[in-house]
Amino acid sequence: MPDKFIWNLQYSVHSEEIDAQHKRFFELINAIYDLLEQEIIDPEKFLILVTHLGDYAFYHFATEEGYFQIFGYQDAAGHIKEHDEFRKQAKEFIERVRQEKGSHHRLAAEVADFAKEWLTKHILIEDQKYMPLFRTHGVS
């Protein structure tokens, strides 16, 4: 069984709003990990969770990207490119869940592992870069 995605201070970007959104990502990823404990994964429940994960990514990324535009974040293009890669992968996962027959264990593990690894790197590297600018503008 994979390790759950546990929030700790290393993931904080020191913004209550964005930290809360990141924590919600953790919850959604862990809900997919929880499916792996079941002998048979309900395909509808799996599709709902993957769709929520994708939808939430769109919502969260829009928050960050809105701030980028308002504050004139210089590295916005590269950051948005990473967001776009996640958006694309989320859409692909949703389509694969819809099409796959039989056990979804392998795909559920792939989705959760991808999201966990991507989000970990993204928060610890990319998101940390914009925080000085956000703090300058009073984002807390």
What's the total helix number? Answer: 4
Distance between the termini: 36 Å
- CATH class membership of the domain at 46-140: Mainly Alpha
Quote the CATH topology of the domain at 46-140. Answer: Four Helix Bundle (Hemerythrin (Met), subunit A)
Question: Measured on Cα atoms, how large is the radius of gyration?
Answer: 16 Å
According to CATH, the homologous superfamily of the domain at 46-140 is: Hemerythrin-like
Shape type: elongated
Helix/strand structural class: mainly alpha
CATH architecture descriptor of the domain at 46-140:
Up-down Bundle
User: How many extended strands?
Assistant: 0
Mean pLDDT: 93
Helix percent reads over 70%
Estimated share of beta-strand residues? under 5%
Largest sheet: none
- List the uncertain runs: none
Task: Write the element-wise H/E pattern from the N-terminal end onward.
Answer: HHHH
Q: Layout of SSEs?
A:
Layout: H1 16-35, H2 43-71, H3 76-99, H4 105-136
Helix pairs in contact: 1-2, 1-4, 2-3, 2-4, 3-4
Describe the structure.
- With 140 residues, the protein is mainly alpha-helical.
- The protein has a domain at 46-140: Four Helix Bundle (Hemerythrin (Met), subunit A).
- It has 4 helices and no strands.
- α1 packs antiparallel against α2 and α3 (76-99) runs antiparallel to α4 (105-136).
- The longest helix is centred in the last third of the chain and has 32 residues, at 105-136.
- The model has no long low-confidence stretch (mean pLDDT 93).
